[in-house]
Amino acid sequence: MQKQSLGVRNAALAIAIGAIVLVSGQARAQVPATPDVAFKLATFEVDGRERAGMLLDGRLLDLQEANAHLVADAGVTSLEMPDDLKTLIEGSETLKPRLFQIANYLSGKTEGLAFGYSPDAVSIKAPIKYPWNLIAAGQNYRAHAAEVGGSAETDPDRDDPLLFAKSPRSTIIDPGQPYVIPPGRDRIDWEGEFSIVLGKQARNLTLDNAMDHVFGFTILYDVSDRAAQIPDHGRFARDYFAGKSMEGASPMGPYVVPREFLPNHAELQVTTRVNGEVMQDSNTAYLVHDVERLLRFASRIMTLWPGDVVATGTPAGVGLGRTPPVYLKRGDVVEIEVEGIGTLVTPIQ
Question: Are 216 and 256 a contacting pair, CB within 8 Å?
Answer without folding.
Answer: yes
